[in-house]
Structure formats: structure tokens, C-alpha cells
């Protein structure tokens, strides 16, 4: 049997928050709005109904869902391209992966539909290896995989087929 003297008031300690868990977000938000910047200049805006930030080692990812919309801007700050998707992941380097009923539109009336795309911030290109349909006035192109510049002006489709209407 042990006995001893001690303070009957228990020591209060703050909860440990240094480790939350690998599968748990460090923070969650609703009605999320994230600005994409380059050298302090806004290059885009991402909006979603819900977002969760996950940290792994020294990097973080923002997982977005509930209606994701990405507006990408030209050098003058005008929206050139809009990406909508069911969910997306925004990486520290501002690369964006969008998935689930992805629709990409441009001011030039090009519409791209697929199930997954990745937009890389470094070269401002949008790519996918999945089935894709690209529609422009008078033409529809389908294929497995594509890449395009951010403004959808130049694109390359892989393993493609399509239809084009020629005026006579």
C-alpha cells in the first residue's frame, strides 16, 4: 500500500494538438474561396461548398467538394477559363486536380467534358488521360486524353475521333 501527500487539485493541461491524425483535416470550412496568386497578382479564384485542409510532413492539400468552380484569369485579370467539378484538390504549388463531371469552358465557346483533369501552375497547362469530349461551334472531338493551354486556345487530343461540319 502506498500513501503520500499531494495537491488535491489536479494539474490542468491543455490538449495536445500537435498531431491530429493522417486521415483527419487540420481545419474545415464551408463556402470556401481560395485565391490563386503569382508574385502577388491574382491569377484565379476557386470556390466550393466545403473544404478541408490536410497536412502531411511540411506540405498541405486543400480537398474541396460540394460544387467546385475554378475561374482562371489572363494577365489583365479577366476570366478566360472556368472549370467546374464535383470535387478538387489544390496542392501547395497551386496545382489543381478536379474530378467528377468536369466541365471546362472558355470565353471562345470551347467546352471540354471529362471525369478528371490536372492543371499545373508551373506551365499553366490542363491535362487528362481520361476520355474527353471537346466541343466547338461546328465540331466535336472525342478521345482518350488531352492537353491544352489554360485559355483553351491550343489543344492536343490523344487517340482521337470526331465530327466536323464544313460550310459549302
Share of helical residues:
under 10%
Q: At the first level of CATH, what is the class? A: Mainly Beta
CATH architecture: Sandwich
Shape type: globular
Number of strand elements: 10
- Major beta sheet, specifics? 10 strands, antiparallel
Q: Which parts are unreliable, with pLDDT below 50 for 5 consecutive residues or more?
A: none
Enter the CATH topology name. Answer: lipopolysaccharide transport protein A fold
β content, as a range?
Answer: over 45%
Q: What's the N-to-C terminus distance? A: 104 Å
Task: Indicate how many domains the architecture comprises.
Answer: 1
User: What is the CATH superfamily?
Assistant: Lipopolysaccharide (LPS) transport protein A like domain
**What's the tally of helices?**
0
What pattern of helices and strands is seen along the backbone?
EEEEEEEEEE
| Radius of gyration, whole Å | 23 Å
Mean pLDDT score, rounded? Answer: 85
Keywords:
single chain, 168 residues, mainly beta, lipopolysaccharide transport protein A fold, ten-stranded antiparallel sheet, 10 strands, globular
Folded structure, characterized:
It comes from Pelodictyon phaeoclathratiforme (strain DSM 5477 / BU-1). InterPro entries: LipoPS_assembly_LptC-rel, LptC. The protein is mainly β. It has a single domain, classed as lipopolysaccharide transport protein A fold. The chain has strands at residues 27-38, 41-56, 59-73, 79-91, 96-106, 111-120, 125-136, 139-149, 155-157, 160-164. Strands 1, 2, 3, 4, 5, 6, 7, 8, 9 and 10 form a ten-stranded antiparallel beta sheet that branches. Strand 7 (125-136) and strand 8 form a beta hairpin. The chain is globular, with a radius of gyration of 23 Å.
